[in-house]
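To the wet lab folks,

You asked to see what we're planning to order before we commit. Fair enough. Below is the target structure as tokens, and below that is the sequence we designed to fit it. If anything looks off to you, flag it before the synthesis order goes out.
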């Protein structure tokens, strides 16, 4: 959260303005200061008395200030003025506004009640309401609740008359509040430990909720969503249920603060609760109280009060010191939905995409806009720029069409693919939408830009379509993109449907007013809700606009489900609507039961029985629709006791699609009237099957069942509707349906089914001329199968000529009929030999299957030129190219060069291009034919692109081309490239000769090193030896596995050439030859040249020979030498490295090595411990080092001096005296630093023998108590492992290890050290405290402790 402002005055109390959240009131000791939401001071009210309480009226018009005198101060928000009203009452304790914001109620210290009308200053005292002080007030639905220290509470009406008064509370009451969805319950904190709940009204009662004593006292509580959230003084948050069936049940508890919780406030618009305590403010999501959403720190100040503005925009925090800070809470609400997925941006700038199974997220920069497509998330990064973030696609409508109706396919696993693209548009983008294939953007100039979402478009090879194409349609105001359709509305009222497959307009409707908004079905349905200036309508190309009842200027939008169900919403509720078939045609049924919508909730997705919403905090929540709730049978009977109510509920469930769930109420709901209402609704919706089941299974109406079984057999909708209208005794409507039904055409259908098309055509002329095109088409297809092309052509022409007389069900059927007629006419025309007419007819046909059929006909008739043209039209490029090759039409072949894949055709095309001098095209064609030799030839000989040819040959490894290039590079004196291509050409000798002549054998050798033969490596080595370059000669002999010769050459190399010795050691390790080993040892010992080499090479030699014991001895010797000269870190690291190598090879660690490492580590650890101010542990380590001070000859006096000073500081007086006495020896005294000499002499002159007894901890082997820094157990005789963070011996209960060097450490000390240093004290690797933890099985580490082996180091 970002801090917006802080109040410049110190305040004791603050309150946000209700309703508007525009002002913040802050109380100082003798005044109230009012600020705007951006921190600007508006008013300062001087009270001349201590402010006790402040309250804003519910409408936000007034602020009331209660002070320690009979006057109450009122600030009027309308005219920004304040005034005082003398109440005439003493000892006012508290106050509360009524629901209308007109009357103030006051409780007094004597138990009286005072009502004050603010506008008229009328005062109404109510004497004797209680016998002791009233401590808390709260208004419900025009009912005032009062709690008093007489341990009773009362409920009064707006005139102050007592409605009810109950006593006997088991403690002093406080914090009275009305709770519940309809404020039907009163909650009171009793004795600071319990919560008393009283239900007001019929069937009311009371109960007291007790809580665990460990929680502490109740700090505050809040009701939300059938729960009460309570905060307790010892840091606990607890939720209890307020549902009737589980009232008082504890649902959750968690200790959220270590020491104390001081205050909490709930913000329902954000679905969050803020709590302060332990010097921090923690914000939790109410839907998941286990996780902290965010934490605010007040720079060492103790927060005492928190509060949200009513709209959730701001959080204000006050500290114990009187400082008041305000933070911004609201985030920019960016969200979108598609199918069952929702995408949104969190307040931490994380893009989240979720579905019903999973959720993914990634960090992004805050976008300007967001839209979710089928397989992309669109982020508007600038006004004219959109970033496409690819995700795994949902199943599309096209996928589902591949499966049967009753089968389902699963969505793929949700995830980011990692592919992103950025697209910049030619203007400002106002709105964007995407599906699986296309993206459409509504531009500021009132046009749409439609483009595909594929790599061709992103690469710039596909363009953008600008809509509308007709300038008379006006400016686009709204747009909707489904899987196959683009729908947009204009400021002239045009509503246009655009087919994405054909990229053409398929429907146009002109409305009287501008179309402002569009809302479509998620599964690609053509039905939409469109909104003009004042009204919403349901429309599709097959439905005339239907006005949505209840639509008003307060309606904010609509959402469709997968079925013909949609919801509209206003700021505080959702309304469910159903688009249903009825006897009167399509009709919108608006269901009366609305669903409450929390403040600030923004509906995103209608999925299943709920609407997914985004709250003001950017979080996602689900709101279950009241119309979709599935009650258990007893609940239904309880909530809907009458037959009509039960029938209405069953009807609602049927309309919203919960049809199978209805049967869970049978036979418990036994009202015949209720089931009859449902059956009638089914018949009104023409659902004969479901109605029959009700009449048969529930109503036992046999006659009706038989009637409906006959109706089920009727496929004619008009005839069926006529029969159903007759059931409802609407005979005029039934007559109308029968007259328009297909029943008179039964004879016509019979003749058609018998394939008696001639007779069927005669019947159609008599009874239904509109059926002629359908019958003629079927007849034509049969004649074509019988090879009667001439007669078939006549029928196709008749079907095409008369098609306007038929009433097709929709445009799709008409389009299909038209295509069948046209394709049949084309086929028969070609079969009859009328090629010119056939080609003309094909110009209006794009069916590839038809075109290929015509190609076969033309090839059979030897019309190859026309066949080639048709193959090009069908995009059968290779078949077309074969025909053009057969006809020797090379220009046509050249035009198709980029569209074919056949190598044979490409070679012919390439030869043609080369003959014509079009060398770039020829090279491209040869490359597609995979004839790389010719490509290289063209590049070099004709295009003079030597480098391009070289790059190609490096890939293809063509020997002929490489040979040619090598000669060209040689002539150009580019010898390095010449050597390379001689090698590619397999001309190794020529390459080597050229390398020798140009003194480039180094390059040649590196080029062939990996793949060269032993002979070639030997030849290269001999060349370098002849040049006196023994190191390189030895290197190539080594790679040739000639170890003796390689060793000789390395030993003859200059001594300064250290890599030669390392190579020699490597040879010994690989050769395993004693003679070579002795030869190298003689060299290292100086017996060869009289110059002994560094001892580190002896160590490396032993390691190479895997003689780890000897290597360890050598390491100890080297470490001693380093230690003698004062290089303790170098000695430490050498010993550690050898220690780890011995462990990795399974070898035994010498005891001397282990002990030297321990002492050196103790010395190095001192400096870290002193920096951490842990002087006691530092003293213990210095005592250990000083007891072995002979190991540190270069720094004896400084070490002893440090030991005396640290021991004296830590209270180890005796140890300080002992080591001070040692320093006074003649050999050390003269070396003492003058600034420490007097202090040490003082320790000697005034000896103190006090000491601090060392704390003992259990031995990890036998649990015997052993002093912390003692590393030997006298009981079990084991050497104890030591902690690398403290030098103490290890204990089992806090055993941890460094993940880098595996040395053990006491976990708590190790973490503290890492917090301050950030690295392991043993191996010096960077390390974070979160990487360290207490191991589960420390005994396994003890069992794996390395064995220590004794050996006489002095004999090495």
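Sequence we intend to order:
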């Amino acid at each position: 959260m970002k801090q917006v402002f802080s109040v410049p005055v110190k305040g004791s109390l603050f309150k946000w303005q209700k309703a508007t959240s525009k002002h913040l009131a802050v109380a100082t000791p003798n005044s109230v200061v009012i600020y705007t939401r951006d921190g600007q001071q508006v008013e300062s009210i001087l009270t001349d008395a201590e402010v006790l309480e402040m309250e804003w009226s519910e409408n936000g018009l007034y602020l009331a200030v209660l002070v320690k005198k009979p006057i109450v101060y009122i600030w009027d928000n309308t005219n920004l003025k304040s005034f005082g009203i003398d109440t005439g009452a003493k000892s006012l304790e508290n106050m509360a506004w009524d629901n209308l914001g007109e009357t103030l109620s006051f409780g007094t210290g004597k138990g009286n009640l005072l009502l004050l009308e603010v506008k008229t200053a009328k005062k109404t005292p109510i004497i004797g309401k209680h016998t002791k002080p009233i401590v808390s007030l709260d208004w419900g639905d025009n009912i005032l609740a009062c709690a008093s220290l007489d341990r009773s509470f009362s409920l009064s009406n707006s005139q102050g008359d007592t409605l009810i008064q109950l006593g006997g509370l088991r403690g002093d009451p406080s914090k009275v509040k009305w709770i519940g969805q309809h404020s039907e319950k009163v909650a009171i904190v009793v004795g600071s430990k319990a919560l008393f709940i009283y239900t007001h009204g019929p069937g009311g009662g009371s109960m007291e909720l007790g809580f665990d004593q460990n929680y502490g006292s109740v700090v505050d509580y809040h009701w939300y969503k059938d729960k009460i959230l309570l905060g307790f003084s010892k840091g606990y948050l607890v939720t209890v249920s307020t549902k009737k069936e589980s009232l008082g049940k504890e649902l959750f508890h968690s200790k959220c603060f270590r020491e104390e919780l001081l205050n909490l406030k709930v913000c329902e618009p954000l679905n969050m609760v803020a709590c302060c305590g332990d010097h921090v403010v923690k914000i939790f999501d109410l839907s998941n109280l286990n996780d902290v959403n965010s934490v605010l720190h007040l720079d060492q100040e103790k927060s005492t009060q928190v509060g949200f503005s009513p709209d959730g925009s701001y959080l204000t925090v006050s500290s114990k010191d009187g400082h008041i800070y305000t933070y911004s809470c609201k985030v920019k609400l960016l969200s979108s939905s598609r199918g069952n997925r929702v995408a949104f941006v969190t307040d931490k700038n994380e893009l989240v995409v979720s579905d019903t199974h999973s959720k993914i997220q990634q960090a992004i920069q805050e976008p300007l806009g967001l839209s979710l497509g089928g397989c992309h998330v669109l982020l508007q990064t600038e006004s004219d720029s959109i970033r496409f973030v690819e995700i795994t696609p949902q199943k599309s409508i096209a996928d589902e069409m591949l499966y049967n109706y009753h089968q389902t396919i699963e969505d793929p696993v949700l995830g980011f693919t990692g592919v992103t693209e950025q697209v910049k548009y030619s203007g400002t983008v106002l709105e964007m939408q995407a599906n699986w294939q296309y993206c459409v953007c509504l531009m500021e100039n009132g046009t749409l830009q439609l483009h595909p979402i594929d790599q061709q478009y992103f690469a710039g090879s596909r363009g953008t379509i600008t809509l509308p194409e007709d300038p008379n349609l006006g400016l686009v105001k709204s747009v909707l993109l489904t899987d196959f359709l683009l729908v947009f509305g204009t400021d002239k009222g045009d509503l246009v449907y655009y087919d994405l497959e054909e990229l053409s307009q398929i429907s146009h409707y002109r409305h009287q007013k501008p179309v402002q908004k569009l809302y479509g079905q998620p599964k690609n349905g053509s039905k939409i809700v469109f909104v003009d200036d004042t009204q919403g309508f349901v429309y599709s190309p097959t439905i005339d606009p239907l006005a949505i009842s209840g639509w008003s200027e307060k309606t904010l939008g609509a959402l469709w489900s997968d079925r013909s169900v949609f919801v509209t919403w206003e700021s505080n509720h959702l309304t469910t609507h159903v688009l249903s078939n009825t006897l009167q045609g399509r009709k919108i049924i608006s269901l009366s039961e609305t669903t409450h919508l929390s403040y600030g909730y923004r509906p995103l997705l209608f999925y299943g029985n709920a609407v997914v919403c985004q709250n003001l905090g950017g979080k996602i929540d689900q709101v279950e629709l009241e119309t979709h709730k599935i009650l258990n049978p007893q609940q239904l009977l309880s909530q809907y006791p009458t037959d009509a109510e039960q029938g209405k509920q069953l009807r609602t469930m049927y309309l919203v699609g919960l049809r199978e769930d209805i049967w869970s109420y049978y036979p418990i709901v036994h009202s015949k009237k209720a089931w009859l209402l449902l059956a009638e609704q089914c018949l009104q919706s023409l659902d004969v099957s479901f109605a029959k089941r009700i009449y048969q299974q529930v109503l036992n109406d046999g006659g009706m069942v038989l009637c409906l079984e006959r109706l089920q057999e009727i496929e004619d909708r008009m005839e069926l509707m006529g029969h159903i209208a007759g059931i409802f005794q609407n005979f005029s409507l039934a007559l109308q349906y029968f007259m328009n039904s297909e029943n008179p055409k039964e004879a016509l259908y019979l003749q058609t089914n018998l394939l008696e098309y001639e007779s069927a055509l005669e019947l159609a002329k008599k009874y239904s001329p509109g059926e002629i095109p359908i019958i003629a088409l079927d007849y034509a297809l049969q004649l074509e199968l019988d090879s009667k092309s001439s007669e078939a052509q006549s029928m196709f022409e008749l079907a095409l000529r008369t098609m306007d007389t038929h009433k097709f069900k929709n445009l799709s059927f008409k389009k299909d009929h038209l295509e069948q007629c046209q394709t049949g006419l084309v086929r028969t025309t070609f079969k009859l030999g009328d090629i010119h007419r056939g080609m003309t007819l094909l110009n209006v046909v794009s069916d590839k299957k038809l075109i290929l059929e015509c190609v076969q006909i033309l090839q059979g008739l030897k019309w190859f030129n026309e066949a080639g043209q048709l193959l090009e039209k069908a995009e059968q490029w290779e078949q077309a190219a074969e025909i053009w090759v057969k006809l020797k039409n090379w220009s046509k072949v050249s035009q198709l060069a980029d569209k074919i894949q056949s190598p044979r055709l490409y070679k012919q095309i390439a030869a043609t291009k080369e003959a014509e001098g079009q060398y770039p095209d020829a090279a491209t064609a040869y490359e597609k034919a995979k004839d790389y030799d010719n490509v290289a030839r063209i590049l070099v000989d004709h295009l003079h692109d030597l480098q391009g040819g070289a790059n190609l040959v490096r890939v293809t490894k063509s020997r002929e081309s490489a040979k040619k290039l090598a000669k060209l590079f040689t002539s150009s004196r580019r010898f390095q490239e010449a050597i390379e291509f001689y090698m590619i050409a397999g001309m190794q000798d020529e390459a080597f000769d050229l390398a020798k002549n140009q003194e480039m054998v180094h390059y040649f050798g590196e080029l062939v090193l990996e793949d060269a033969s032993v002979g070639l490596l030997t030849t290269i080595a001999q060349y370098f030896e002849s040049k006196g370059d023994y190191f390189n000669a030895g290197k190539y002999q080594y790679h040739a596995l000639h170890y003796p010769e390689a060793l000789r050459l390395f030993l003859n190399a200059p001594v300064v050439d250290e890599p030669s010795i390392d190579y020699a050691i490597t040879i010994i390790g690989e050769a395993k030859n004693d003679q070579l080993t002795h030869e190298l040892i003689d060299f290292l010992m100086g017996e060869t040249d009289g110059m002994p080499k560094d001892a580190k090479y002896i160590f490396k030699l032993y390691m190479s020979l895997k003689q780890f014991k000897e290597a360890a001895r050598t390491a100890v010797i080297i470490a001693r030498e380093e230690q003698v000269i004062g290089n303790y870190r170098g000695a430490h690291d050498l010993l550690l490295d050898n220690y780890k190598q011995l462990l990795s090879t399974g070898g035994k660690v010498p005891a001397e090595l282990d002990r030297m490492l321990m002492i050196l580590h103790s010395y190095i650890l001192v400096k870290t411990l002193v920096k951490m101010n842990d002087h006691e542990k530092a003293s213990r380590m210095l005592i250990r080092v000083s007891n072995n001070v002979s190991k540190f000859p270069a720094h004896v006096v400084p070490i002893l001096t440090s030991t005396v000073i640290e021991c004296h500081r830590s209270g180890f007086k005796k140890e300080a005296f002992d080591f001070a006495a040692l320093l006074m020896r003649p050999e050390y005294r003269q070396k003492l630093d003058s600034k420490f000499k007097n202090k040490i002499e003082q320790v000697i002159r005034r000896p103190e023998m006090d000491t601090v007894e060392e704390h003992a901890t259990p031995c990890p082997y036998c649990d015997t108590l052993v002093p912390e820094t003692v590393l030997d157990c006298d009981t079990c005789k084991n050497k104890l492992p030591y902690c690398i963070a403290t030098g103490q011996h290890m204990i089992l209960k806090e055993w941890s290890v460094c993940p880098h060097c595996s040395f053990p450490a006491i976990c708590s000390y190790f973490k503290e050290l890492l917090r301050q240093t950030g690295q392991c004290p043993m191996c010096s690797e960077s390390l974070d405290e979160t990487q360290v933890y207490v191991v589960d099985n420390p005994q396994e580490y003890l069992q794996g402790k390395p064995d220590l082996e004794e050996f006489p180091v002095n004999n090495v």
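Structural context that might help your review: Residues 397-409, 1350-1356 have pLDDT under 50 and may be disordered. The chain is about 35% helix and 25% strand.

Thanks,
Computational group
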